[in-house]
Structures are given as structure tokens and as C-alpha cells.
Amino acid sequence: MTRLEIVSNFIDSLERERTALGLTQIQMAKKLEISVSTYKKLISGEISKVDLYTAYRAHKLTGKWAFELCGCVATELMQVVGKLRDLTPSQLRFVTSVIDLELSFLGQLPVEIEDDYVDLLTPTGNLEDGMIWDSMHIEKLNIAPYRKLFGARLQCAIRITSNHLRPVYCNGDILLLSQSAPRDGDTGIFINKEERQAYIRKFCQADPCTLEPLNGYGLTFTLDDSDSDDSDKWVNFGHVLSKIRE
User: Fold this and answer.
1) What are phi and psi of 72, to 5 degrees?
2) Which of 44, 71, 76, 208 could form a disulfide with 224 if both were Cys (CB 3.0 to 4.6 A apart)?
3) What does the alpha-carbon distance between residue 141 and residue 114 come to, in Å, rounded to a whole number?
4) Distances in Å between the alpha carbon of 227 and those of 208, 210, 232, 238?
5) Which domains does the chain possess?
6) SS (H, E, C) 47-86
7) Three-class SS of residue 234?
8) Candidate from 78-82, 186-190, 218-222, 240-244 with smallest mean pLDDT
9) Among 148, 145, 127, which Cα is nearest to 136's?
10) What pLDDT, in 10s, does the model give residues 124-144?
11) pLDDT confidence of residue 112
């Protein structure tokens, strides 16, 4: 992009963010620590250069990075960084511990052997259908025999920590997961964002789709893709490719 395009995008972003925040132009100018006349000249296009401190104040006010305000498309890395802003301090500590694990593991093994390991998540407490997953620890799991079967689809694993899901899954079982969309009949892990609860359910493709209990206990949930309010309640964490019973 040219300088003029970047400045134009920045100006558009300022006015869009100002409206979203419910601020007047006078209030916006005060937040940016510039005069009202300067702000009006800026948004009218009379100023072709943006002061670095103004861009900094805009970032602090809106929570958006400068490149976002300038209209640049976020890379995958920056999209992840953006999501970190919404986490609580305890969640950030957990994510940091995961990053530390990955960094300590990085480079310890040849690339072809590194690919034979995935993250194994073990929730704290008894893993049951409908539990709140607010704590877990992570270790590396060697899945070399399964990589040949599932390839890149095998992305992580979860350890069952109770017998609440017997006879389908027992305490100590390890579920190998793909984080792609489930198909009819797949067992998936679905998180209800409103209740902050995770459910291990059989996914049934229908109109609407249903999430059915594995052992006959509990309510059947509907998942209506045509209703955004309904479908937005759920996060598909992944579906089961295979089970390891030790």
C-alpha cells in the first residue's frame, strides 16, 4: 500500500472505532491527546502524515494494533496474538506454559521424529460429559504407529480421567483427535461457550444436527447451523480418530 492508502485506512479506522466507542470527535481528540482542530484536519484528509504518538494512543484506546488500524490483513501469527488479548491472567499463564513446553521440545528431535509427537491434554479432576475444563496439564505423546494411519489429521490427544463415560471410554483411555469438522456418527468434543462446559458426544448429521450422549445418560443437544445464535454457542474442539487403551 502507498502512504496515502495507509493514512486513509487509518483515518477510516479512527472514525469507525470512535463510533463503536460512542465518543464524540471532541472526546476522541482528547483520548488521542491532540487538539480538536488537529483531529478534524486529520479525518478530513488535510493531514497526510500521522504522528507516531497518535498511532500509539489509538492502539491503547481501541486495543487494535497499528497495522490493523492501517488496513493490513493480519497474518496467522498476529491473529493468534489478537486472541490472547481476550484471555484472563490465569488463561494467559496456561497458554504461556504451553508455549514454554513447545519451545523446550523444539529442536530436541529430528523433524521427522518431532512429527510423531502430539500434545496430550489431561484435564484436572474427573473428566466427564458436561464438565468445566478450567485446568489441565500437557505432555508429549508418541503416536508414531498412528501417524501412518491418520497423517496430518491427528493433531492432539486427551486422556480420560474417570469412568463416567463407561462402557465407551474408561479411566486412562487416550483419545486421538482431529480438529477438523466432524462427520455423521463421529464422537466429538464440543464446548458450550455460554456454560463453559465441555461435552463428549456423538455427532448426528440431521436437520438440525444433534449431539447425543455416548452412554444414554444426559440430554440430547441440537446444533442448528441455520441459526447463527444457536451454532455460535458451540465450539468444535475436535473429533475422535482412535482410542488407546493402556
Assistant:
1) -80, 145
2) 208
3) 10
4) 9, 14, 8, 21
5) 3-84 (1.10.260.40), 89-244 (2.10.109.10)
6) CCCCCHHHHHHHHHHHCCCHHHHCCCCCCHHHHHHHHHCC
7) strand
8) 78-82
9) 127
10) 877 778 888 777 888 889 998
11) 54
